[in-house]
Amino acid sequence: MARKTKAEAEATRESILDAAESVFTDKGVARASLEEIARTAGVTRGAVYWHFRNKKDILDAMLNRVRGPLAEMLDESATSDDTLANLKHLCVVALSKLAEDEQYFRVYYILFHRNESDQALNKHLELADEGISFVTTLLSRPENRRQLRPGLSPELAAYLLHTQMLGLFFEWLAKPERWPLASIAPILVETIFRGILSND
Hints:
The protein has 10 helices and no strands. The mean pLDDT is 88. The protein starts with a helix and ends with a helix. It is 80% helix and 0% strand.
């Protein structure tokens, strides 16, 4: 019985997150209410509060749900023999996933274009700091630092990579029909890396 109860609780949590994606997409994070999320999910507001304290908790959970596989790839890239090749591959996968995974698309659309709330903006800044810090650590390794364009520090290279990827996410999410992102992702990423790495 306990196992069934746990499974039911998890199913309720997932339905709340699904409902939040829908409500946040339609109304934006700031104008959405927990009551509306509960109504959309077909649960009581108390059920929402049992799983989440506030909209920030919901937003965090939504992001964690879609970032799981990429987070695993990040961990793998940090321990591989060719971290630059893995980092490049990860960038291609992230862009392709944006184009091909509907849930991934919805969550990042909310973060980038329906994020008028402080919670969403703060989450965006938090993710940016994490990403730049992670890439800086990878690029600081002696074998990678030697491959950077002269005068480009690991910190600046990480910042440049982050802002280029951020721009691609932001612009494509605003008008996804303009470019077939999954098919052009490899050349976009290759071009970004050519700007960061030395030609030698």
